[in-house]
Amino acid sequence: MRGHNEDFKGDPKPATEPVKNNGFNPCWNKTFTFKIKVPDVALLELKVKDHSKTGKDEHLGSFAARVNDMQEGYRRVFLCDYKGKELRPASLFLKVSKKWDAQ
Question: 5-14+34-96 belongs to which CATH class?
Fold first, then answer.
């Protein structure tokens, strides 16, 4: 999650565990919850890396979108390289849920 400093009071970079020997169809089954106080500037950024035992995990692709622009439900997001080139058919399948606290 990227955005306003108020949105990073917890772990600013939660991550999944590496998936071994399944580079074509990895499945993480992981849920992340973010308490966003300034949604107008909040971005969801996802990065996919090739895990290396040397510690230099190679960037494979990424996705970023404004949280306000993301629709709820199941979504397929396509990965891009750092130059912005789409890496089709490389994609991630997500379930997006948004909940607002009454204030």
Answer: mainly beta
